[in-house]
Amino acid sequence: MGMQSIGRPTSPFPSSVSGAETVSGSKGLLQHEDLIFEIGSPDKTGVDLPKPKGGKNRLGGVARQQSTGLPGLSEPEAVRHYMRLSQRNYAIDLGLFPLGSCTMKHNPRLNEKAARMPGFSDIHPLQPQRTVQGALELIDELATWLKTLTGMPAVAMSPKAGAHGELCGMLAIRQALIARGEAETRKRVLVPASAHGTNPATAIQCGFIVDEIKADARGRVDMVDLRSKLETTDDVAGIMLTNPNTCGLFETDIKTIADLIHDAGGYFYCDGANFNAIVGRVRPGDLGVDAMHINLHKTFSTPHGGGGPGSGPTVLSDALAPYAPVPFVVKDDDGFRLIEETEGDAAQAFGRMVAFHGQMGMFVRALTYMLSHGADGLKQVAEDAVLNANYIQARLKTVMTPAFEGYCMHEALFSDAFTADGIETIDIAKAMLDEGYHPMTMYFPLVVHGAMLIEPTETESKQELDRFCETMTVIAERAAQGDEALKGAPYLAPKKRLDETQAARKPVLKWTAPVPEAVAAE
Amino acid sequence: MSTYFTEDHEWIAVDGDVGTVGITKYAAEQLGDVVFVEVPEAGVSFGKGDDMAVVESVKAASDVYAPVGGEVTEGNGDLADAPETVNEDPQGKGWFCKIKLSDKGELDGLMDAAAYQSFCEGL
């Protein structure tokens, strides 16, 4: 036969050797990497320049006497160091990122293309306004979309993240109370027990006092507790509420809550972090909301979680609109113009929150996302996000314990009730690392024991959700059986289970050179 | 000497008009491994229920409230370097501070050991 028999075998050999440990510390093509101080050294340099001849030191007595201790590396060493570290990153571009309340959805590449257009990317915030009319129009157009989607009359575009938007909303409330002459008496802000931690923090930052409302057995605001907190009303500044809340549930009494707060003379701040679940379906303005931040980096798909800055435009009701911070864009006969000073139309503005005009790059991405989906597409975003979360809840409810009965919104919340004694939520999360998944949000919200909050978002396919659920089913069954091996996970990650207690009690914040053996022996 | 307990899981062991304050075994177990403790210095005064100390574990940071009002006569400085003492001996060596009580009547609202135990069982 004339067949070619030379070449390499293309089938794997059967082997009984597992070979888990390697000489180099690398695992396959995932290279082991030391600290940069351990690779380079101060007496090494990546640039080979001749020593300067002569020349007088003109620093007087202040010339450095000792080495800086900074390591020298060659260019390929430096490049490889950071490339290797970057391989250890987990990103939405690598896999499902089920971090509850973070809405880690896919960031469409079309957004990136639009943001890189020179008319948006190569402009400067101090350029004459007549040369950036397109950029100003984009800010104005995005503002119109946000106002339309929320049913609110005004929006402050400049806040740079969710918590910054909260600060904007609460400062607007404080300014409104100052205008009413009640800033000194109305100090109490009601915050549900399940709130994002930033809510009470923001209230305190603005000089308010936090009064916590209990959650009821359904995971929603306890209306009896709320009414009891409103027995005295002349000290109530407002309420901060997330809807859907951090239990992934729609606050069904939200209209009553809004009415109660308004009757008490307070304002209703809605945390818009979970807007993804209701965008296109529910307008917060119709629910009686006075202020709400919108995380462009969640609902409107701009990168976050280490991938890009946040952006938190804050919509305001008629009652709060006059106090919106500068700058903002207005349109008149001459085109678009920025109101920069707290005078004239902006005389009542509470001030300014940022140096310039907000996260322009994120504005471009968010508007691109809106225009590419259209109003009907955004409605489907919310529907699919809720559908995906309920699919996960339905598939996992036989092996894990849903925290509350009934359908969820955009995230499925489980308690650790299904685990055997000794197995905790952290063990499940660590086992997920071995399976190649970023863990879900854990131990939050605090109202659920050992909480596991899973938010798949609408951008995951059914195949991906199935793969995730099959993996979670196996881990959950091991947890229910009390599989001790879970306590040691992760086994396949670059670092094994870390001792968080020791790390917190005796943190090592600085690398120190090991003492050379010869010296140590003396 | 008698020991009293609060619903916020502080204990106070009173001897004369001085009480030694700490957090209960139940609280220490719930917190998990304690990694940082900040205790008040001698000379500082608190009202009943004021934030008096901070205890941080790997899970959470919590305020510790003064079970009664009074002036601190001594803080347990050893906890700064050995926060694990709070886990090892919460109702002994893991004490936080000693308070000179301003009003012994404030003890009346607190629980005794038996009442506190049944309170914890109900949680």
Task: Describe, in plain words, how this protein is organized in 3D.
The complex is a heterodimer of chains A (522) and B (123). Chain A is α/β, with parallel strands linked by helices. Chain A has 14 helices and 13 strands. Chain A has two domains: 109-370, Type I PLP-dependent aspartate aminotransferase-like (Major domain) (Aspartate Aminotransferase, domain 2, 3-Layer(aba) Sandwich), CATH 3.40.640.10; 382-505, Alpha-Beta Complex (Aspartate Aminotransferase, domain 1), CATH 3.90.1150.10. Chain A has a seven-stranded mixed beta sheet with strand order 1-7-6-5-4-2-3, with helices on both faces. A four-stranded antiparallel beta sheet of chain A has the order 10-11-13-12. In chain A, strands 8-9 form a two-stranded antiparallel sheet. Chain B contains four helices and nine strands. Chain B has a single domain (2-117), classed as OB fold (Dihydrolipoamide Acetyltransferase, E2P), CATH 2.40.50. Chain B is 20% helix and 37% strand. Chain B has helices at 25-31, 78-81, 85-88, 113-121; strands at residues 2-5, 10-15, 18-23, 34-38, 45-46, 51-57, 61-65, 70-75, 97-101. The chains are: A alpha/beta (522), B alpha+beta (123).
